[in-house]
Amino acid sequence: MSTPASLHARHQAVMPDWLSLYYERPLELTHGEGRHVWDAEGNRYLDFFGGILTTMTAHALPEVAKAVSDQAARILHTSTLYLDRPMIDLAERIAQLSGIPDARVFFTTSGTEANDAALLLATSYRRSNQILALRNSYHGRSFASIGITGNSSWSPTSLSPLQTLYVHGGVRTDGPYAHLSDAEYTAACVADLKDMLSQTHGNVAALIAEPVQGVGGFTNPPDGLLAAFRDVLDAHGILWITDEVQTGWGRTGEHFWGWQAHGRAGPPDLLTFAKGIGNGMSIGGVVARADVMNCLDANSISTFGGSPVTMAAGLANLTYLLEHDLQGNARRVGGLLIERLRAVAAALPVVREVRGRGLMIGVELVHRDGTPSPRAATAALERARENGLLVGKGGRDGNVLRIAPPLSLSVAEAEEGAAHLEDALRAAQSATSGLGESRRIGGEEQP
What we know:
Elements: H1 4-14, E1 29-33, E2 36-39, E3 44-47, H2 50-53, H3 62-74, H4 85-98, E4 103-108, H5 111-126, E5 130-134, H6 143-146, E6 163-167, H7 182-198, E7 206-209, H8 225-236, E8 239-243, E9 270-273, E10 284-289, H9 290-293, H10 308-323, H11 326-345, E11 351-357, E12 360-365, H12 374-387, E13 389-390, E14 392-394, E15 400-403, H13 411-431
Parallel strand pairs: 3-13, 5-6, 5-7, 7-8, 8-9
Antiparallel strand pairs: 1-2, 2-3, 4-10, 9-10, 11-12, 12-15, 14-15
């Protein structure tokens, strides 16, 4: 059996250079159980990143494993050209949970593909290729979704089939409006949106927004901002797409969907989802009002979207999440974890902010002069791994630790992880010397 070092060499020989890996010595994870995973050398880790927010309930959850096994023993694949009972069962549950009236559901295989489909629907419905997006946003790696990504680290080309207009609102604690109160901040962002619309030609198709920006470093606007945006959008007939790929299924604790923090103006017109619903299986999708979903006037199918096996997994996973109130657990345990980390950060100048909701927590690291420190984030990532803890990394400058464990995390595991993170942040404090370092474009983060 090859060593991790030799496997890394093979990876470098056959994979693209831009397919980056975490850690100076990359890990091969071989199996998991609950909130833990093991590498090829037998080391056990507490997983605080959950396969990029995808292992939502637990590793090797018996209910999901059994559903996959039972369905695979019957039939693996049929396609959407045939009636698919597991797909219809899951679609009914998601349509009801979405809050969108007269909802229709279309399944894809990823969040990128889900956002791509939502853009197709919105631009077709509105007969416009103009899209509003938030600065610092991330919506996927396809050609179209890159075109609406407001984070330069994840936008390798300026070419796009869309005309994208970026508005303020995704980052509360940075930018020209950071000094304002929440009410003033919302008013300023709304004014910016109105000014942007006054300069557009023709009909804007939609606004797409993550309620909490995932790759952007778990940043979010004040509650109600997107509802205030919706008031402006409605006056122009512009659709609202909520990107719930990372915020859905109760991860924020307070709400089942991120858009519900902005629910005064009612549900969105379209909702995209992925990641956690499959607990590691490839599931994505779009929920939309029937008139929007049915606007396409050409044939379309989804060869692998709605696969019987992935749908069985998603249904079992969603059932487990609801029956065990994992949203409530995310609220309770996540609240404890955030407060624990804020107490630690109070004594460490390297930490600019601990932010987040539920089990979606960001820790932003800076130099003494307040400039972003990706070096400190890398140091913390490496020390956490040495301590037996896996976390993620993100933010525009790669200087934010992303903490998103499975929603079944226990209080004891949260305390254990917090202790490891305290040590990792102290290592990051030691790594920040001098007055700053040059801003880095790109990096090692995964969406």
